[in-house]
């Protein structure tokens, strides 16, 4: 993929995240962004399916090539940003073009539902 194409894709992913975060309304910068799907059984089930198909290959059931997401210390907002934008200088790709913010939140809800087990 050419660097121009990658730049366009990265800009789109960032724009998607910014637009989604802006939906939280005025004054959002003073508010904590939290996962709207926490504790919702149907969303957790959907998140598990997405985790198994998109995340498990690297993150496994308790960490593997990628860190153990079930022990993450990331805030909800940091988790969303990391999954959508990826992490520079790591193997973590940007999923902003493959998953919607709601899909990412559902994966997060699944992960958080396992924290308490």
UniProtKB/TrEMBL annotation:
Keywords: Heme, Iron, Metal-binding, Signal. The lineage of its organism: Bacteria, Pseudomonadati, Pseudomonadota, Alphaproteobacteria, Rhodospirillales. Residues 42-115 form the Cytochrome c domain. This is Cytochrome c. It comes from the Bacteria. InterPro entries: Cyt_c-like_dom (IPR009056), Cyt_c-like_dom_sf (IPR036909). It comes from Dongia soli. Residues 1-24 form the signal peptide. The keyword Endoplasmic reticulum does not apply.
């Amino acid at each position: 993929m050419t660097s121009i194409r990658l730049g366009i894709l990265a800009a789109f992913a960032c724009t998607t995240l910014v637009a989604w975060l802006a939906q939280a309304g005025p004054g959002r910068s003073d508010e904590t962004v939290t996962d709207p799907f926490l504790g919702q059984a149907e969303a957790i089930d959907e998140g598990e399916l997405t985790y198994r198909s998109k995340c498990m290959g690297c993150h496994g059931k308790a960490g593997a090539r990628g860190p153990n997401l079930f022990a993450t210390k990331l805030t909800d907002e940091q988790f969303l940003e990391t999954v959508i934008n990826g992490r520079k200088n790591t193997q973590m790709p940007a999923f902003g073009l493959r998953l919607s913010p709601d899909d990412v939140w559902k994966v997060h809800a699944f992960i958080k539902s396992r924290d308490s087990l």
